[in-house]
From TrEMBL:
A GO BP entry: carbohydrate derivative biosynthetic process
Database matches in Pfam families: Glyco_transf_N, UDPGT
Family as reported in the entry's similarity comment: Belongs to the UDP-glycosyltransferase family.
Residue span(s) of domain Glycosyltransferase N-terminal: 9-226
Protein name (Swiss-Prot/TrEMBL): Glycosyltransferase
Top EC group: transferase
Record-linked SUPFAM superfamilies: UDP-Glycosyltransferase/glycogen phosphorylase (SSF53756)
Pathway: Pigment biosynthesis; anthocyanin biosynthesis
Length: 443
């Protein structure tokens, strides 16, 4: 970096191709651009297209979206170049396709000539490129410190598979691409001494400190970074249904953008919702090309039994808008990190139903912070059971026993609101120091 340079620091941001990663990068880009950082956000066209329209409506002149075209692969057409809606068996293919795009990324990098690269921890070749050009790299971890990257073995302890996104196994059984753990370790070894994380000390202080010791880096929390619901998220039919419900009387059910319930899980969840007698709004999603119609996807006569007591939303729902609504009293969630933080921001207690990756650890954190309870799986078969689903929903939303959780969720939401953007100011300071440029920032 050129210490003599002044003006706006130019940041190239390069998240992994997942909605749950791109959203936090975009929110950080918005906040840094308001502090005069020039941001270039790089991803595949299918990931950037919905952002183009949104950013055009909002006022972020210092954010530029940069298309990265992956090499054409027979089973990975352009609309599959994202994890959103991608059939699970293609995750490794997507990871390999991104690796194959490293020369294209190198051309983008040299054309933009950034002062700083903010990158995910799955693309070590991007970090290597920056190091070779003497440009500092900062990694931005979009999941919690509790599931910190260095202790990936923790995922095994919780009995869930690692994301097989690298095509190879985590045990590096000679697969042609790097294992997830190797990607992360290589990234951490090459990057600068600070690492950003989408978290905050009020919920993760001990895990953030532990991560700093493990990685020997200064861990800089960026705060909750929750996108405030905009008018564009309005879905009149959903708002109309919610407006008819009493305060805190409805449970919202969603499993993020990458997990799809099995038939058996849908059955148990559906019957659990019926048994709970709590009104619900349930986002029902299927991978591209595997969509089932709602009538066949749910138990026989479910719609008739539920009547106005439940609303099924297919494919996509305005999650922040729903969580913000006064009638929502709980969130049955897979505990993806983005959903956990959003539920905390809007003060909605979580009924954890973790599935994969970091989600069991996120569910553990939710319990430790006191803003939710976890649906325990069957002792022998670790399966979801309808009676347990109903028990936890009723406890969190209705019963006296859930009062502490409901109160703690409200308290944490007020704490988050009171923080404003304190963490982002510190992030901006750290990046200016790292780049050694007289950055003209006013905030
Ligand atoms: C970091 C990684 O993100 C992954 O993303 P995933 O999409 O599964 O879940 P979230 O992180 O909750 O992210 C999901 C995001 O999609 C939004 N949404 C989802 C469904 C919908 O119908 N409408 C919406 O607006 C939601 O508001 C959230 O922002 C995995 O969790 C993984 O565990 C986590 O470590």
């Amino acid at each position: 970096m050129d210490a003599g340079k002044s003006g706006n620091i130019r940041v190239l941001m390069f998240p992994w191709l997942a909605h749950g990663h791109i959203s936090p990068f975009l929110e950080l880009a918005k906040k840094l651009s308001k502090r005069n950082f020039q941001i270039y956000l790089c991803s595949t066209p299918v990931n950037l297209h919905p952002l183009k329209e949104k950013l055009a409506r909002l006022n972020f002149p210092l954010i530029q979206l940069v298309d990265l075209h992956l090499p054409p692969l027979p089973d990975l057409p352009p609309h599959y170049q994202t994890t959103k809606g991608l059939p699970h068996h293609l995750l490794g293919t997507l990871e390999n396709a991104l690796d194959m795009a490293s020369p294209t990324f190198a051309n983008i990098f040299t054309r933009i000539n950034p002062d700083l690269l903010i990158c995910d921890i799955f693309q070590p070749w991007a970090t290597s490129l920056a190091v070779s050009l003497n440009i500092p790299t900062v990694h931005f971890v979009t999941f919690g410190a509790i599931s910190n990257p260095v202790e990936l073995k923790g995922f095994k302890k919780t009995g869930v598979a690692l994301p097989n996104i690298s095509g190879g196994s985590d045990d590096q059984n000679g697969s042609e691409s790097l294992s997830l753990r190797d990607r992360i370790v290589q990234c951490l070894k090459q990057s600068s001494d600070i690492m950003l994380i989408k978290s905050f000390r009020e919920i993760e202080a001990k895990y953030i400190d532990n991560l700093s010791i493990l990685t020997k880096k200064k861990i800089v929390p960026v705060g909750p970074l929750v996108q405030e619901p905009g008018e564009e998220d309005e879905r009149a039919e959903i708002t109309e249904w919610l407006n008819k419900k009493d305060p805190s009387s409805v449970v919202y059910v969603s499993f993020g953008t990458e997990y799809y319930l099995s038939k058996e899980e849908r059955e148990e969840l559906a019957h659990g919702l019926l048994l709970s007698q709590v009104s619900f709004i349930w986002v029902l999603r299927f991978p591209h090309g595997e969509k089932i119609n709602v009538k066949d996807a749910l138990p026989e006569g479910f719609a008739e039994m539920v009547g106005e007591g439940g609303l099924i939303v297919e494919d996509w729902a305005p999650q922040k808008k729903i969580l913000e609504h006064a009638c929502i009293g709980g969130f049955v969630s897979h505990c993806g990190w983005g959903s956990v933080i959003e539920s905390m921001r809007f003060g909605v207690p979580i009924i954890g139903m973790p599935m994969l990756y970091d989600q069991p650890l996120n569910a553990k954190l939710v319990g430790e912070v006191g803003v939710g309870l976890e649906i325990k799986r069957g002792k022998n078969n670790r399966k979801i059971e309808r009676e347990e689903v109903a028990r936890v929903i009723k406890q969190v939303l209705v019963e006296k026993g859930g009062e502490n959780v409901r109160r703690r969720a409200r308290e944490l939401s007020e704490c988050i609101l009171g923080k404003k953007d304190r963490e982002v100011d510190q992030v901006a300071d750290e990046l200016v120091k790292l780049c050694g440029i007289n950055h003209s920032q006013v905030w």
